[in-house]
Amino acid sequence: MSRAARALHAVLALLWAATVLSTTAQPEASSFTTVDLFVVSDTPVAAWQVELTERRGAMQIVGIERGDDSTFRDPPFYDRLAMTRSATDRIVLASFSLSDASQLQSGRVRIARVHVRMPGGSVPDYEARLVAAGTADGRPIDAQLRIETQPER
């Protein structure tokens, strides 16, 4: 086989490989959303725990932010293993503040924002449950949980 023929075969093999890889290695379509979690209570909230679930188990948590209340200075505590999985059906978040009761907020307060990637562009089916909410002196309080989702891109 001549040198030119071998070079032609090599170029054709590279073109074929590039074509196969470009059609099979396309990234999976996905969508990103944020899930805002709000506690609604007439009593100032000093501690809370929330469970966020995606009913089909397809969400991938890509980030967690703290809420609007400055008395909760850090992002909530959460299961870091749930964030490292490629997909999960639930995550538990919790936080507490040691601030004086007079500094804590009541009413509708955003406690956390969860950034979620949904593989395949599927529409998420979220459910959130307020596991516990309490006052600065440790008493449980009657509170409700609200969620709002916003598409990112």
Query: Strand fraction band?
Result: 35-45%
* Proportion of residues in helical segments: 10-25%
Q: What is the average of the pLDDT values? A: 84
- Unreliable spans are none
Give the N-terminus to C-terminus distance in angstroms. Answer: 54 Å
Structural class: alpha+beta
- Strand and helix order: HEEEEHEEEE
SSE blueprint and pairings:
Blueprint: H1 3-24, E1 30-41, E2 47-54, E3 60-66, E4 77-78, H2 80-84, E5 90-96, E6 107-119, E7 126-134, E8 144-151
Antiparallel strand pairs: 1-6, 1-8, 2-5, 2-7, 3-6, 4-5
Provide an overview of this structure.
There is one protein chain. The chain is an alpha+beta fold and 153 residues long. It has helices at residues 3-24, 80-84, and strands at 30-41, 47-54, 60-66, 77-78, 90-96, 107-119, 126-134, 144-151. It has a four-stranded antiparallel β-sheet with strand order 3-6-1-8. The chain has a four-stranded antiparallel β-sheet with strand order 4-5-2-7. The chain is elongated and about 90 Å long.
Any key phrases for this structure?
153 residues; four-stranded antiparallel β-sheet; elongated; alpha+beta
